[in-house]
Amino acid sequence: MGRRRLGPALAVALLALAALLGPQLPAGAAAADTACFAATGQCVQGPFLDYWQAHGGLALLGYPLTGEREETLEDGRTYTVQYFERARLEGHPAPAGVPDEVVLGQLGREQHPADPPAAPLAGDAYFAATGHNVGGRFLAYWQANGGLPQFGYPLTEAFQQQLEDGQTYTVQYFERARFEEHPEHPAPYDVELGQLGRRAVGAAAPASVPPAGWQLVFADEFDGASLDRGRWQTTYPWGARNNAGNVELQYYADDAFAEAGGVLSIRAERRAAGGYQYTSGMISSYGAFATTYGYAEIRAKLPRGKGYWPGFWLAPADYSQWPPEIDVFEAAGDEPNTVTMTYHYKDAQGQAQKVSGDYTGPDFTAGFHTFAVAWSPGLLVWYVDGVERFRTTTAVAAQPMYVMANLAIDGKNPPDASTPFPATYDIDYIRVYHR
Questions:
Q1: Which of 4-8, 283-287, 381-385 has the lowest average pLDDT?
Q2: Mean pLDDT of 89-105
Q3: Which of 46, 54, 110, 172 is 20 to 30 A from 408 via CA?
């Protein structure tokens, strides 16, 4: 689902109004303490509200998309964060007796790593720290709205990019933002911040809508305080914590899981265990749930980095009878825009075969996306963000299968010095439907 664009006149009017109006407060709430917004059903309070009000508020940062929650960020540390349409606010711990420092998260860097340095341009501001120029409308906006402390250094030159609404704009990425040029709007509304916060939390992705006639029969929304061990095993059905046949380099550890804020995080670390130099995790419904046919869906944010190999798949409840296997998706961490959908089966001679398709789309490490398969008699159809991306009618299985999600370390494409450790495979939910 693309980002909605308002007509130019209406957009300008709303931006001007947003700059003048204060937040919508619930009855009895003081402006200094809490502000709640009916548009998204979320509230902002305390230091985050103070920062939001002092740094542009609704007009600059947009509505809150989430409440405050704990999140492990790119430095491997856990912070209190809150997502807004155009930003992520982070509370960075300060010494005792001093309020925590609130800063904008580096969503620009996360969603568009720095381009190679460019040569200085006459008339532009050049930043040797990253080797990029800022000029024209973007420089004026950068200077007027907080500059380096607010947005950070430029990571790219200005360039043309097709955005979420399918239109092409002149954009420039900074450490904490994406600037977009909209010449159809009069100044000062001709430059807007991109909705990187919305993109990061997947708020712009289509809602989960399984085909008509399917009823929910198994789900985990991961709303608890820890992984439900009665629902999920953390080993392969035969007890193994590694699958050498897949050339995996990790040991699937019992302590690789954190559940908070409605998200299960499977954490991969460079840590020795069980004879392997890496640890990670897997969850399997083997022994608790299996299905013959159904619509299986996961909503997840994938890890970025060479060697990471996340997946969501269905495997036979009688594991001695492999294949079949339905890979709803798998991905390589150093190809963040591509997922692979695969079906493994036996041919008429009993030999293992497979059919597969790739889909290249958005950066699946930058936010949450849905990946699903509809398994019916004689037909498998794969979906990414609610859109069909692959199908097959080849030797479709008709036997009970359990569901599994895992974060492997790929021995065929192993980590190198560029791979960030630790990293997490973040899962919002897993759901299975029947007709």
A1: 4-8
A2: 81
A3: 110
The 3-state DSSP class for residue 202 equals coil
Nearest-angstrom CA–CA distance, 220 and 202: 19
As a residue count, the chain comes to 435
pLDDT digits (tens, 9 = 90+) for 28-79: 333 458 888 877 778 999 999 999 999 888 888 988 888 888 888 878 788 8
DSSP character for 48?
H
Beta bridge partners of 282: 406
Question: 324 with 313: CB under 8 angstroms?
Answer: no
Buried b (16+ CB within 10 A) or exposed e, 350-363: eeeeebeeebeebb
Query: Are 15 and 59 in contact, with CB atoms under 8 Å apart?
Result: yes
Rounded to the nearest 10°, the torsion over CA 22, 24, 26, 29 is -10
Q: 3-class DSSP state for residue 290? A: coil
Q: Distance (Å, rounded) from C-alpha 336 to C-alpha 351?
A: 32
The rounded distance, in Å, linking the Cα atoms of 164 and 203 is 12
Cβ within 8 Å of residue 72, ≥6 positions away = 78, 258, 265, 267, 422, 424
Question: What band does 257 get if pLDDT is binned at 50, 70 and 90?
Answer: very high
Tokens standing for residue 125: 């501001």
Q: For residue 263, what are the CA distances in angstroms to 71, 299, 406? A: 10, 10, 15
Please give the C-alpha separations between residue 430 and each of 130, 222, 328, in angstroms, as whole numbers: 40, 9, 12
Pairing state between β 250-252 and 278-280? parallel
Q: In this structure, are residues 339 and 330 in contact, taking their beta carbons and an 8 Å threshold? A: yes
Q: Are 28 and 21 within 8 A, CB to CB?
A: no
In 105-236, the DSSP E strands lie at 125-127, 132-134, 159-162, 168-174, 177-181, 191-193, 215-220
pLDDT at 27 over 60: no
Give pairs for 386-393: CB < 8 Å, separation 24+.
386/205, 386/206, 386/207, 386/208, 386/209, 387/206, 389/341, 389/357, 389/359, 390/341, 390/356, 390/357, 390/359, 392/343, 392/355
How many other β-carbons are positioned within 10 Å of the β-carbon of residue 302?
28
SS3 196: helix
Q: Tell me what pLDDT residue 7 has.
A: 36
Buried-state track 394-418, b at ≥16 Cβ within 10 A, e below 16: ebbbeeebbbbbbbbbbeebebeee
In Å, how far are 268, 365, 430 from 262, measured between CA atoms? Answer: 19, 18, 12
Q: How far is C-alpha 320 from the chain's CA centre?
A: 35
